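Hi Q.,

Before the meeting this afternoon, I wanted you to have the nicotinamide-adenine-dinucleotide prediction in hand. No need to reply - just skim if you have a minute. The sequence and ligand are here:
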Amino acid sequence: MEKILVIGANHGGTAAINTILTNYPNKKVVVFDKNSNISFLGCGMALWIGKQIDSAEGLFYSSKEKLENNGAKVYMETEVFHIDYINKLVYGRDKNGNEIIEDYDKLILSTGSLPIELNIPGKELENVQFVKLYQHAEDVIKKLENKKIKNVVVVGAGYIGVELAEAFKRCEKNVTLVDLASSSLTGYYDENFRDLMNENLKNHGINLRFSEKLLKLEGNENNQVTKVITDKNEYDADMVILAVGFIPNSKLAQDHLKLFKNNAILVNSYQQTSDKDVYAIGDCGTIYDNAIEEVNYIALATNAVRTGIVAAHNACGIELEGIGVQGSNGISIFGLNMVSTGLTYERALKLGFNAEYVEHTDLQKPGFIKNNNDVTLRIVYDKISRRILGAQIASKEDISMGIHVFSLAIQEKVTIDKFKLLDIFFLPHFNQPYNYFTMAALGAK
Ligand SMILES: Cc1cc2nc3c(=O)[nH]c(=O)nc-3n(C[C@H](O)[C@H](O)[C@H](O)COP(=O)(O)OP(=O)(O)OC[C@H]3O[C@@H](n4cnc5c(N)ncnc54)[C@H](O)[C@@H]3O)c2cc1C
Ligand SMILES: NC(=O)c1ccc[n+]([C@@H]2O[C@H](COP(=O)([O-])OP(=O)(O)OC[C@H]3O[C@@H](n4cnc5c(N)ncnc54)[C@H](O)[C@@H]3O)[C@@H](O)[C@H]2O)c1
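Predicted structure with the ligand bound:
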C-alpha cells in the first residue's frame, strides 16, 4: 500500500489528509504534528479574546480522533527534526523524547508559518506575546483576568494587529497600535480605504501611532514588561503583542528543496517541490498569484486549504492543477467591513503596471429602504491591457461576497470594459438598479 506522510496537521495538512482519506482508501496516511491540537481557526482568536464568542470550542473542526477514525495514523506532540529525502525517511521526536522513524512514498510538507521575531532588547520579558496558536490565545486570556493589565500595546497594524486592537478594546483596555508604516493595513488597501479603518479605530478609542520604529521593551524588577520605546515616543505597557507578519516555517526543507526569496518552499502549480515525491502546501510554500502573474507568498488559511486539496490528489496519482490565487481577504472591525482582492492601486504602480482606478460610493439599497449604508468600491485596472488587477470594498453593510466576483475577474483576466456590462440582478432588499459595480466600471476611461 502506498504511504503518504504529512508533516503538519493544521489547515493545509488537515485538508490534504481528509482529501486523501475520502478519495483514496487504498493509500496509507501517516501524520506528524508537534502541537497538541489540530485545525485551530486563528481567525477566531480575536473574537475569543474580545469575548464576542464564549469559548474556543467552535474554533476547531478536526482532531486526532477524527483523523484516526477515518483511517490515518497520527503522531501528535511529535516534532519532525530531520528528513532523509534520499532514503525517504522522516525522523520525529515525541514529548517523552522517543524517536519515531517513518518511511514514505510521497511526502506532504505542511509546516506552516511562524510569527516574525523582532530582534529587540526586552523581547523575552513576561507579557510580551505572540498570537498564532490556540495556546497563545489561552495565555493572553488568562493574563487579561489580572486587573493590573490595563495598557496593551499592539505592535504591527496588519490584519492580526487591527483585529486584536479591537479585541483588547472590547476588554476595556487602553490600546495603543504601533506600526512602522504610515497607516494600518498598508498591505491590503489604498490610502482612502485605510483612512476609513484608521478613523474607525480612532473613534473607538484606540491610540494610533504610525511611522514609529520599535526600539526596545523595558521591564520591572519582576521581569514584566512596562514600557514600549519607539524612535519617537514611549508608551506604558502591561502587555505587548508582537504581530509584524509571518515567515514560512521551511527549516526541514533547507539544504534539499528549492526555496523562494523569503525561504518559502518553491512549488509548481501541482504543489510539487523541486523533489518530485515531495509536496508543500499552505504557509510553508509559495503560491501562484494571478494578479502579478508570478509566484508569490500569501499566508492565508484559504490558500492552505486549497493547496492541501491540490497536493493530496497529485500525491495520490490523480493530476490536478491549481489555478492560482488573488490573495482575497477581508476584515470586520467595530462593524466596518472591508474586503480586497488582487493589487491595490499603490502596489500596482510600484510593480510597474500602467495602473488606474475607478471608484464609486453609493447606498447599498435604494434610499426608501431602512437600515441602509454607503458602500465604497474601488476597481484597479491596467490602462493598456485593460485587465482588472484588484478591487477593494468598504461598508457597514455585509458586502463580503461582492469581492469574489473581482477575484474571478482577475483569475480569468476580465477587462474593465467587459465588466461594465456584467449582468447584475436588482432587488431593493439587496441592491440598486444602478449597481455600484456597474457605475464604478462605467467610469473607466
Ligand atoms: C490570529 C490569526 C488570525 C488569522 N485570521 C485569518 C483569517 O481570517 N483568514 C485567513 O485566511 N487566514 C487567517 N490567518 C492565517 C492562517 O491562520 C494561516 O494562513 C494558516 O494557519 C496556515 O495554515 P497551515 O496549515 O499552512 O500552517 P499552520 O497553521 O502554521 O500549521 C502548521 C502546522 O505544522 C505543525 N508543524 C510545524 N513544524 C512541524 C514539525 N517540524 N513537526 C511536526 N509538526 C510541525 C504545527 O504544529 C502546525 O500544526 C490568521 C492567522 C492568525 C495567527
Ligand atoms: N482577516 C484575515 O484574513 C487575517 C487575519 C489575521 C491574519 N491574517 C494573515 O496572517 C498573516 C500574518 O498577519 P500579520 O497581521 O502578522 O501580518 P500583516 O502582514 O498583515 O501585518 C504586519 C504589519 O506589521 C508591520 N510591521 C512590520 N515590521 C514592523 C516593525 N518592525 N515594527 C512595527 N510594525 C511592523 C507591517 O507594516 C504590517 O502593517 C498575514 O498573511 C495575514 O494576511 C489574515
